[in-house]
Amino acid sequence: MAYFLQQLVNGVALGAIYGLIAIGYTMVYGIIGMINFAHGEIFMIGAFLSLIALLLIAALGISNVPLALALTLLFAMAFAALYGWTVERLAYRPLRGSQRLAPLISAIGMSIVLQNTVQLLQGARVKPLQPVITGGLVLMEGDGFVVRLSYLQIIIMLLTLALMIGFTWLIHNTTLGRAQRATEQDMTMAALVGIDVDRTISATFVMGAALAAVAGLMVTLYYGVVDFYIGFHAGVKAFTAAVLGGIGSLPGAMLGGLLIGLIEAFWSGYFTIEYKDVAAFAILILVLIFRPTGLLGRPEIEKV
Amino acid sequence: MAALVALGLAFPLVGHRLEDSVNGLSLGYRFDWVAIGVAAVFFGRLTIGLLGGVPRIAAFDRLKGLRMDWLGWVLAAIAIALPFLPFADRNLIDKATLVLIYVMLGWGLNVVVGLAGLLDLGYVAFYAVGAYSYALLSLYFDLSFWVCLPLAGLFAAGFGVLLGFPVLRLRGDYLAIVTLGFGEIIRVILLNWQSFTGGPNGITSIARPSFFGLVFSADPPEGRMAFHQALGIDYSSLHRVMFLYFLILALALLTNFVTLRLRRLPIGRAWEALREDEIACRALGINPTTTKLSAFAIGAMFGGFAGSFFATRQGFVSPESFTFIESAIVLAIVVLGGMGSQIGVVVAALLLIGLPEWFRDLQLYRMLVFGLAMVAIMLWRPRGLLSHRDPTILLSEMKR
Amino acid sequence: MSAPLLTVEHLSMRFGGLVAVGDLSFTAPSRAITAVIGPNGAGKTTVFNCLTGFYRPSVGRLTLAHAGQTHFLERMEGFDIARKARVARTFQNIRLFPNMTALENLIVAQHDTLMRASLWSIGGLFGLAGYRQAERQAVDRARHWLDQAELLEFADVEAGALPYGAQRKLEIARALCTQPVLLCLDEPAAGLNPRESADLNRLLLAIRDAEGIGILLIEHDMSVVMGISDHIVVLDYGQKIAEGPPAAIRADASVIRAYLGEPEDSA
Prior knowledge:
The structure holds three protein chains of three kinds.
Chain A: H1 2-32, H2 39-60, H3 65-92, H4 101-122, E1 127-128, E2 136-142, E3 145-150, H5 151-173, H6 175-185, H7 187-192, H8 197-223, E4 225-226, H9 230-245, H10 250-270, H11 276-290
Chain B: H1 2-13, E1 16-21, E2 24-29, H2 31-51, H3 59-63, H4 68-81, H5 90-115, H6 124-140, H7 145-167, H8 172-192, H9 194-197, H10 227-231, H11 238-263, H12 266-276, H13 278-283, H14 288-314, H15 324-337, H16 342-358, H17 363-380
Antiparallel strand pairs in B: 1-2
Chain C: E1 6-15, E2 18-28, E3 33-37, H1 44-51, E4 59-66, E5 69-72, H2 78-85, E6 87-89, H3 102-108, H4 111-117, H5 122-125, H6 129-148, H7 164-177, E7 182-186, H8 194-211, E8 214-218, H9 222-228, E9 231-236, E10 239-244, H10 246-251, H11 253-260
Parallel strand pairs in C: 3-8, 3-9, 6-7, 7-8
Antiparallel strand pairs in C: 1-2, 1-4, 4-5, 9-10
């Protein structure tokens, strides 16, 4: 029971991170129907940015941990958003309205470019980081096993929750959110009623990138190591989460992320850690066979 | 404006370098790089602005006028003659062999993506199944390459059906993620099933193929005859390289021949029709599932053939050779070549595989250039290099 | 009139709470044109989608009787309805294969026959004589329908590049290449100019008289409906409000009400 609880805690923390990345996939897919393969790399860049920011802030002599973290978060979000914007502007916007696979290939190319740029600039070695936030709560003790909920895990969960609420509000209550939903439904029509479609799409990429940067910071703090290759794996997992939850749906992305996180935690905890990816994908395939549009995706009625 | 963006992009990642030091990480600064980069972007953008946009290269548009079948024969002739040309050394033939592997993979995937319009991001799985089938069959049952080749193709096709059956009902992009997942599953299994596949170490010393029973070796084993002895020429290690080259050339041409043939058969036309409009296909009595499945299986089969060739060429296989990036490269070849265009695949493979091979000295920048090339070609020709489609049947060419 | 080709009994189709078609029954004979008309949203296309297997009806029996065989369409997969029961259809928003030529479109329509002839591709791969023979026949059939539809000059042109009217006709020709016993046409005259729609009328009459197949027609263009239909079924809000020959329908009070609304003075 204690062990179960511990895996639950770990899974939820991991799932929150996947969920944050998955939102970027799901929003971009919803609005322009493309798999933004470079999104995982944006997350990786977010992690590097956080690391640099942490060191920079330390060098500036700010030793107040909450302040330092807040600054790092802002720094990483701002610059990652700039990366997200640039990638869209350079590699995707010129291809809007061309064949369906063109932006996908461009995105894969972009992902290779970003990955190798970071590798060239920052070296291929794994970057370790001293733990910034330590300590935690002991939830329960039993069978000689201690269930811990670290402060970091609490921060991850709370921050994710706050961002989710903020985001849902943004999408439902602001002009930008309305423009996004309109563009998602019908790009031509949205343009006709005076929505700046290009800007709306850019904003979507910026928001997705900012969230990925938050995830990047969390991973940096949580695992304490970063390398240029983490983007691909996290990206694939997060995209799987987005599809599992029903692509295009924000709550779906979060739910999918949580499920993938839980599956991985429990599988690693009870079976073999090596096959955790196989388990995640196998469950995705099973879900899609029985619910072809994902868990929270709207079923489509075929228009003939 | 562009320079400002570049400044923003470069400032954190270029300007600071994470360095290992005694107490963990420290930062190095190199703002001079940032300045250089920003200046380069500024002047580059200025030039483009002054020239009034990126100049268009018209050479490819003119190519459209050429008869494609004619171009195909010329390319085939060059490919056959290549090893006998005076400047062909071992290195060149090796590189050409590598390009041909990708041409073959591209042609195989072209059936799935180009003709049937199914987005497969896990094609490498079938390549891996082919390679490991041969490696394992020759390891455990001591079967020869020529027996294993068709078996490897069948196994790969079998896996294609196995995967395809449940998932082919899914819409395009869902199919993409599931195939990607499948590719990863195969790789993870190969990596972790130590006792059977050798895990991360892979399988080494796989038997090399023989030429109708003639082996390529300076001193053949007891009871076998070597290639050079049979022909009464001196032994040269180049023979095997050339043999492998012709072997993959033959396999690739077979793939091409079968694909072109299938395109003119009802099954091929049904694939293309399915790509164009699945609903109309159903209204015409075409079973979408079995039709897609056949495309999937045939594409997988060619992937399997290519895989077993890969295994026999390398003499060793490991999961490292079958990562997602391989799937991405093959898909890029198909899309960049112009979906469904056989010649386009050759051109794209030459560009994407051949060119970077030449710059192997710049090891570090190779993948970066590769990625940039992918983006650049796509932006330059969104429909692919050669996006021309030949009709499979013409009324004007039919005899009454 | 002989035994009906198509019998629709108590057909209902619900989407959530919305009843698109409610308890609809009618029959359509062979060698005749049966028109289904009604205001927009009356459920006409839904009837077609049930008949051709794109929707599975909530309730009802759809029987197709032909040459001693009976098919229950509501139980069959869409592609089997086209293949075994031989029901062909066209679509309201034309669905051709735009990057394939007109001729290729018609050859694809003969997929099933050709597939058999090519021994599921294996024989075709080796250039079997029987397959080449079959392919020639398929081309001849395609040529015949291209000729009938006055599209012969466009045979080797990509379907997507054809003028709108030609695309409409090509879609009908493609449906005919499946050798159907029942042809369902969803607004074939939509977007045609008067001359083109007169051409269409001639083509449809020729199909009915020469081929002896049943035509089920959804149409808004009353000149087409009244000009060529043998029998008319009128739907409104998913219910059948009238049925009969053109002359009777023209005079039917409930039909006039459905199309023109309630008379103003009664309000």
